[in-house]
Design goal:
transcription cis-regulatory region binding, about 40% helix, DNA-binding transcription factor activity, D-Maltodextrin-Binding Protein, domain 2
C-alpha cells in the first residue's frame, strides 16, 4: 500500500479541490489538462493509499463521501497554508521579517498602538501585497518591558523607563514624559483631607500596586511605603478600577486617569512626598534593525522605528487613551 503521507501531495489535494469545486470528473479533467480515465486512476490511487472511499460512484456524479468531504476541507486548508508559507518566504527574502513582537508597557496608549497596527497591515509592497509579517503585541509592566526585549522575546519595546545606559547591543530613544497623580475615590477617607497628605497618613491606608511582569530581572517597586498594606493587580487599568472602587489609593498616570478624574470618579490629592514626571523611551536590539550592508533586512522593524520618529505619534502613545480612531499615514 502506498505511503499515506506520500499520497497527500499538493497535486492530489489540488485534484480533490478541482473535482469538489466543479462537481464532475470530466469537467475537472478538462481544467487539469487530463483525460477522464487518468483522473479516475489518480483518485483510485489516492483512495488505495488512504484506504477509504472518497467518492460515491453509484451515481453518475462526483458525489463525495463523508471521508471525501473531510479530505476536501482539510486539503483546501493545507493548500491555503502552503500558499501563505510560500508568500511569507518570498517576502522574507525581500527583507520583511516573518514575525515581529512588540512589548508595550501598560501606560502606552492601546488605541494608538492598534491604529499603527492597522496602518502596518494596510501597507502595500512593490508586488501590491502586504508585508506578511506576523505581528504580536505583549503587555508588560515596569522591568518586564526591558526583560522582554533583552531576553529576545520582543523585537521592539515601547515604554521602557529611562535612566542609565541601555544594555550592550540595545538602542534606545526617548519617547516622552508622563505625570503621575495621587488619586482616590470621592468616598475614600483621604478625599476629605485639604492639606498635603504625609507619609505617616498614607501608611494607614491600603495602596494599590501593579505587579512587575519581570521574571528574571529584579522587580521594580514604585511609591510603596515600608509596612503599607498593598493590594496588587496585574495592569494599570486594573489599578485605576480598584481605586475607583475605593479598594485603595496610589499614584496613577494622569493621561489614563484623566477621563475618570474629569467625571469625578477619582479625586486628585496633594501629597507631601515629591514625584517627578516619569520618563519613558523605546528600545530595540541593534542587530535587528536595518544595517548598511544588509539593507534588505528588518523592514518591519524599520517601519515601526520610522513611525516613532514622529513627535505626534510619540505624544499620542503617551497621552491619547480615549477618542475616536484616527488614520495613521
Amino acid at each position: 500500500m502506498p505511503d499515506r503521507r506520500n499520497a497527500l501531495t499538493p497535486e492530489a489535494l489540488t485534484m480533490m479541490d478541482t473535482i469538489g469545486r466543479l462537481g464532475s470528473f470530466a469537467a475537472a479533467a478538462r481544467e487539469l489538462g487530463k483525460v477522464p480515465s487518468a483522473l479516475t486512476y489518480s483518485v483510485r490511487q489516492l483512495e488505495d493509499a488512504l484506504d477509504v472511499l472518497l467518492f460515491d460512484r453509484r451515481s453518475g456524479q462526483a458525489r463525495l463521501t463523508a471521508a471525501g468531504e473531510e479530505l476536501l476541507n482539510e486539503g483546501r486548508r493545507l493548500l491555503a497554508e502552503m500558499d501563505a508559507v510560500a508568500n511569507r518566504v518570498k517576502r522574507v527574502a525581500t527583507g520583511w521579517e516573518s514575525a515581529l513582537t512588540i512589548a508595550a508597557d501598560g501606560v502606552i496608549s492601546r488605541l494608538t498602538l492598534f491604529e499603527l497596527c492597522e496602518a502596518f497591515f494596510a501597507m502595500r509592497t512593490d508586488g501590491d501585497e502586504g508585508p506578511g509579517t506576523r505581528m504580536r503585541l505583549r503587555t508588560e509592566v515596569l522591568a518586564g518591558t526591558w526583560e522582554a526585549l533583552v531576553s529576545g522575546q520582543a523585537d521592539l519595546a515601547i515604554g521602557v523607563s529611562l535612566g542609565g545606559a541601555p544594555p550592550v547591543g540595545i538602542e534606545m530613544r526617548p519617547l516622552g514624559e508622563i505625570d503621575f497623580v495621587f488619586a482616590v475615590a470621592p468616598h475614600h477617607p483621604l478625599a476629605a483631607l485639604d492639606v498635603p497628605i504625609s507619609d505617616a497618613e498614607l501608611l494607614r491606608h491600603r495602596a494599590v500596586a501593579v505587579a512587575d511582569s519581570a521574571h528574571r530581572l529584579s522587580p521594580v517597586t514604585v511609591n510603596l511605603l515600608p509596612g503599607q498594606d498593598v493590594f496588587t493587580v496585574a495592569s494599570t487599568q486594573a489599578k485605576i478600577e480598584a481605586q475607583i472602587r475605593c479598594l485603595g489609593c496610589g499614584f496613577v498616570p494622569e493621561p489614563l486617569a484623566r477621563e475618570h478624574i474629569g467625571a469625578g470618579r477619582l479625586v486628585v490629592k496633594q501629597v507631601e512626598r515629591s514625584r517627578e514626571r516619569a520618563r519613558f523611551g523605546y528600545a530595540w536590539r541593534a542587530d535587528a534593525a536595518p544595517q548598511p550592508k544588509k539593507a534588505a533586512q528588518g523592514l518591519a522593524l524599520g517601519w515601526w522605528l520610522q513611525q516613532l520618529e514622529s513627535p505626534t505619534t510619540r505624544q499620542a502613545l503617551l497621552e491619547r487613551h480615549t477618542g475616536l480612531p484616527q488614520r495613521v499615514d
